[in-house]
Amino acid sequence: PEARATNGYDGGEGTGGPLYEFCRQALDNADFRAACARAIRAESDKIAAARGGMVSSSVRKEGATQIRAIEEAFEDDSCFPDACRLVQMLSRLQEEMRSSIGKRSGDAATENSQEVADRLERDFLKGCCADFARRVTEYCLFKHGVEEGIFLFDPCGSEMGVECLSAEHHGGRGGAFEMPLFCRPVDMSVLTFRPPYLSCSPFEGGEEREPLLTLKEILPGNVGVDLARMWMLCGGDCYEGGKSSKHGEEYTRSGSFRDFLQHVKDSCLSLCGLPFKVMDKKAEKQAMSFRRQQLTQLLEDTENPFDVLELCVALLFQKVKHIAVAGQELTGSVLQVLIEDTKISAPVGTKLKELAAANSLSEDVPNELVECVKSIALSKDIPKLVSR
Q1: Where are the alpha helices (DSSP H) in 76-178?
Q2: Coil, helix or strand for 203?
Q3: pLDDT tens digit sequence for 115-171
Q4: Kind and range of the H or E run holding 49
Q5: Which of 49, 193, 260, 349 is deepest in the core (most CB within 10 A)?
Q6: pLDDT tens digits, residue range 173-210?
Q7: Are β-strands 243-246 and 249-252 bridged in parallel, bridged antiparallel, or unpaired?
Q8: 199 strand-pairing partners
């Protein structure tokens, strides 16, 4: 004890010894202190969430019933497994575009195709992939009891959505209660996505927090790390902190659909307790058939020229290329790729472009043009499309 006091190891006003001085100089900086403060706040959030779960036995029993109903809804074939299938179905276009570019030489046409492929990949990542990431993230936050309000998923800053569904609807017991939207069935005929945007609410003192870093800090093990990587692979348009400025120019972190697909295949089991549902040819054929039937019914029931064009592009693309398409580029880059296909005749391409042009001008579109495009897409025989 006397030696320790002499050398300053007693925690007093001494130097603290060489090891103490080394650690202080190497670690004690602003970044280290900020990281410690964030870790303390994250731990406080966990404690607050745990205290929130200290309720009476009757309330706990009711809560356990609801939790199980939510888990069963997420595990249902129409929810997470269908979300896996949809991601794989809509990724086929990206694979097709990249594969076709790889077979060409470097000319102007190839450069144009590369630009189209890049736009389609960004659209796929911001829409379908980010929607999948949101669903999995919300489920993981629910599963680990993370306090609501920390993570936001819309550009306007709204929290996890809920809808009033009955537990019986999902095979559970009990009456109606608010069922999170991440448990809703997946629409396999979807044409457009509302792009999610991951952000965080600030701390009570007003200090901002980065969503990817907060995921890593607040979730146990590799859960937060894998979720953060999933969002990173969607691209910087999908989360706060994904854009930065350099020399006066804004830079957006790029995503990768191939890396995203590989990552979700590798990580979903540890994240959700469910393996990523890899779709075989038989399942894909059934899903594509169901999608075609749904799109056909929607087209038959609508007269809206904007909906007609989107549905026609999706149906014709599936008939001609046997690929499902969706996203905000349906009447842009996807339409361009469709018209360039040799199975689409010039007259058919002209009608599609005429309807697209009329829609862009927000004019009253002639019913004859709308009905003509509808009849083209509803034709069951592709050779007839070519001869029109």
Answers
A1: 80-102, 108-124, 130-143
A2: coil
A3: 999 999 999 999 999 999 999 999 999 999 998 889 999 875 445 444 433 444 444
A4: helix 30-52
A5: 260
A6: 344 557 888 999 999 999 999 999 999 999 877 788 99
A7: antiparallel
A8: 152
